[in-house]
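Why does this matter for the project? Reviewers at the last site visit asked to see concrete outputs rather than summary tables. In response, this paragraph embeds two records directly. Each consists of the residue sequence and, immediately after it, the corresponding structure tokens. Nothing has been edited or filtered.
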Amino acid sequence: MRQGDPPPVVCFGEMLLRLSPMPGIPLTRAAALDLAVGGAEANVAIALAGLGQAASMLTVLPHNALGRRALAALREAGVATEHVTHAAGRLGTYYFEPPSGPVGGCVTYDRVGSTFARAKAGDVGFVAALDGAALLHLSGIIPALGPDSAQLASAAIEAARNAGLPICFDGNYRANLWNAWNSDPRAILTELVASATILIGNHRDISLLLGKTFSGDGPDRRREAAEAAFDAFPDLQVIASTARHIESATVHRLAGRVDLRESHWQTEEVRIAPVVDRIGTGDAYAAGVIYRWLHDGSAQDMAKSGLALAAMKHGVIGDSICIGHAELEAFDLGGADVSR
């Protein structure tokens, strides 16, 4: 980082190529695929950069045209890329069949052996990237990729702790990825979350971490889980989550919630119809929470901004959303009239 530059949020994780057929055409009959670039942590970086928050991506990309396409997606959004490294290999890929009518969406992964999944801790410049940063953001997708990637996540956390940085960890539990190798997700994730300042996760994520269930109903259950997590992880300051109710593949209801140690706030549900693209909405919520937290926002501020950004993302095709601060402030959760 150059002297005088604002401190960036550093987002560390794998970038992915997304290929999708048109809605209503299953992958088995597709003749054409739409290309987009994504990845959980990159989606957060792009959303933050759009809002005016300095953001930097830390990842490993392949030395080929698809690696350059991923790099271009970051730069188009204003995300700093000086700490992106390159190596031989391939860009991780996933295929997304969009929801259509009563049929929900479907994801098929093809990321085994990708450049990022094969990377070692020495391949990533954690110390240089985190020098003078505002916060490190990463997710549970990284350790789910395999033992080498689990060590990568631990190295990132250790570097952030050594630099005295706050850490935002998004649980992003992906059972299919964890089940593909001889993993112990509870032990690995518990070690990582123990260093987090902000946890993006709900009562189910906390149940996995603590090995217990929570018997309350709705908001009470979420508060019970949050209090248990605060007791178990002394460094935690914020737990942020969404509550989603699915009426159909294209009609969802969504609420945002933020728990602090002494207080909490949960928004009213908003009805989102039609859902154009659900992928990346959780990352948009995380970005809204991080953005407000960095600006000393209250639990209410964080939940409302996270929900607004997530709701808007449902109407944007692709993995990420990139809007300005003014658009976020002007967005009306209760309506969608034409802006004139």
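We now turn to the second protein, recorded in exactly the same manner.
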Amino acid sequence: MHQINRIGKCLLAAALFFIFELGVAKGQVPVLTEVEKQFAPLFSEISLQLSTDKQRYLRDPMAYQDFIDLRLRPLWDIASTARALVGRQNFAAMTRTQRQDLIVAVRNTLARYAFEGLEKYSGQQFQIVDIVINQHASMGWVQVLMESSLIPDIILDVLIKQTDPEKGIWQAVDIRFKGITYVSVKKHSFRETIEEQGIDRLITDLNRKNREYFADICSKTQSSGRAPCVLRAE
């Protein structure tokens, strides 16, 4: 379980280095081309940034947060991840304010994973080896090979969703390792907390973990003034 979480966090931190090399059905080629256009420039930039600027980001968490917000956050559909974690029924029963608070808490949690992954990053390289899109071109998986000189190569899958069909925009919603997804690992504890103590308690617990983690790294680096050293509520 710890290995799954650690790898998921490392993937969020290091992201991917994109190589598009697969044969697909003719009707899916335009869709896969759109996925390539959106992700290819990002993946190479992230690999370069982490390999060259890891120490700077460790010293300046606000700079790393800026990088996450600019390059990573737009490619993740946090609302869909939050809904999957608590379940559609629970999500539908929330007030508008509770939904927004949950989405923000999950967003900050994913950012925390990215920071934890940065601490563990040791030169891993990511290469996309396959893409699978469903018949309706609404969901798909991006299969990623993680190469490291320290551990055996690992295959990870990133679940992607077409969030704006008119513009052809795709975003990530989950990560799978050896058949187990991040959502499947976390959803039981999320839903148990909601059932026993309510959604507000779940949000409070997530906010507390995020606040304590970022307070620690910001104190160690003597950083203040903006995210992540000041967690935003929007």
